[in-house]
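INFO  loader      accepted 1 record
INFO  loader      residues=107
INFO  predictor   begin
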Amino acid sequence: FWLRVGLWSSGLAFIAGIGAALVGTVELLAVPGIRARAASWAHGIAGMALATVAGANWGLRLTMPDAVLPQGLTLSVIGVVLTGIAGWHGGKLIFDHGIGLMVSSKD
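INFO  predictor   done
INFO  writer      dumping tokens
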């Protein structure tokens, strides 16, 4: 049961990561001033690395279901760390720099 849960979770994480990467790339290119922020680049790089790790995790679980320990677990732990890094920098963009917030009715 848990092997199947891990397979589906890693696959959905990869697909969601690709969708988030597409939206994030459009936002990076379209929102004025966002490229000047170091946090936006760190957030983007961590997100791309996270999508890569999720894809590798999914591919590993598809091709070698018995390789959950230690490879699958290692990729999952790396994914958790990258999620924390991407989330931290995404929070900095919102709370410190006000990216994506409407602060007045004129915005």
